[in-house]
Amino acid sequence: MITESNEPDNLPPPLEEPVSVHRAFTYSACAPGWGDIYAGSRLRGYATLILFVFCTAWFTWTMAQTLNAVVGQLFDSLEGITPYVMPQLPIVSMGISLCGIYFSWLWGMLSAVDTATGRRHHAGYSPQASVAWAVGISWLCPGCGQIYTNDRRFGFILFGAYLLGFLLIVPAYKQLFLSLSDLAQSGQLPANNPLAVVGIVHELIVRVDYSFGKIFQESIKYFAVAFTMAALRQGPLKADTKWLNPSLTYGTALFGLGWLCPGAGQLLQGRSRIGWGFFAGYFSSKFLIVLLLGGSLIPVETADTLAWLPVIVQWGSMVEAPIVVGRGKRPEPN
Predict the structure, then answer these.
(1) What's the distance, CA 90 to chain centroid?
(2) What confidence score (pLDDT) does residue 3 get?
């Protein structure tokens, strides 16, 4: 007996669930490559995952061998077999493997955002536009925010510039370790005067903090966040006025955003001139200290005093944006 079905013969295929850029980023932040696999790029995902696992295994093996040698020398010296001699540390292997871990982690997040954004675009879905996610993505991996806001080429440029910052920082840290080693070997670190030791170490650390490479990399990260806020405001959030209407919640969020990146709150409000002004003032003061301290034009004590200049600019940005929210000011015309 043949029974007729009440369902139509030609049903439309079920709609494909859109890929979430937020989920892809989170997956790759937890396990590099997982976000690409989720977004549909299995080859890129597995390649990133294999690189991450290889570098992690290399670093773990190197650390295990190093600890084994150090502990073995220590016990031999305690038993009186041989005098304690610090074994030669595989600094190069540890450095390369550790950099490989960090690079694969950063690349995994950037690649996941790129794959997921492209997948949504080709499927015809609208781009996602969350301020909180955009800030977090840009802060953890500079360049991701630009890809998130559909500026793929600029995102990869910023990512490359951020990686370049690591190479520029290396000389400053190398000088720090060499200086500490020379001071220790020459006996210039007085063991009976801890305040003098703290002062010497503080001076060396300040010189590292205000080295060109350190401030350059910091400026790239902050610029990525600021540019992402400007892109969101000029794009999907162009008609959004909640960041200018009186609100305790949004005012508090702008206060925190100003602390994270001076000028970003103003850019999110659509007030580009004052936003970029705060950003420029913050990093101009920092690069001024770099120039004066690096050129031996001022001592470290003066650099500590001048360090209040960027702090003042930062607090100005933090306070100004919530005040504008309280007043309900309209965005400036571009």
Answers:
(1) 28
(2) 46
- The one-letter code for the residue type at 109 is M
pLDDT digits (tens, 9 = 90+) for 116-166: 999 998 888 888 889 999 999 999 999 999 999 989 999 999 999 999 988
Tokens matching residue 133: 């996610």
3-class SS letters over 258-271: HHHCCCHHHHHCCC
pLDDT in tens, 29-54: 999 999 999 998 999 999 999 999 99
The whole-angstrom separation of Cα 285 and Cα 290 is 9
Question: How far out from the chain centre does Cα 297 lie?
Answer: 31
What is the per-residue burial (b if ≥16 Cβ within 10 Å, else e) of 124-136? eeeebeebebbbb
Give the integer Cα–Cα distance in Å for 226 and 254.
13
Answer whether 268's CB lies under 8 Å from 232's CB.
yes
Among the residues of the chain, which ranges form H helices? Answer: 21-30, 34-39, 42-78, 91-123, 131-140, 144-148, 152-186, 194-209, 212-234, 248-260, 264-268, 272-294, 300-306, 308-327
By CB atoms closer than 10 A (0-12, 13-18, 19+), residue 25 is: buried
Q: What predicted TM-score, i.e. pTM, was given to this entire model?
A: 0.82
The four Cα atoms 100, 36, 155, 105 give a dihedral, to 10 degrees, of -20
